[in-house]
Amino acid sequence: MYDDDGLQAIIVEYTVDGQSYRKTSNSYSNMPKSMGTEVDLKYNPANPKDAIWVNDSTNIVMPLAGGLFTLVGVVVIVIATKKMKNGEEYM
Hints:
alpha+beta; 2 domains; two-stranded antiparallel ribbon; 1 helix; about 30% helix
C-alpha cells in the first residue's frame, strides 16, 4: 500500500484460531520490511481484528515527538511571560 509520495505502509497478515486477518500500519516508510519478515503483534483475544505492532516505531516516536514539541512550547511561553513581567521586549 503506497501513499501519494510513494512511501509504503507495512501490511501484516496473521491467523488466530484458523481465521486470517490483515492489519495495515498507520505509518509509511521508504524502507519497508521485506515480505516474509516476522513482526511482533498483540491482538485482543475477544476481537482479533483489534491488533497493534509491539515494536512499531510510531508507538514510541509519535508520543516522544509530541512531548518534545509541547516542552519547547511551554519553555517559550514561560520565557516570554517572564520578559513581559520585567518590561523587556520579546523578540
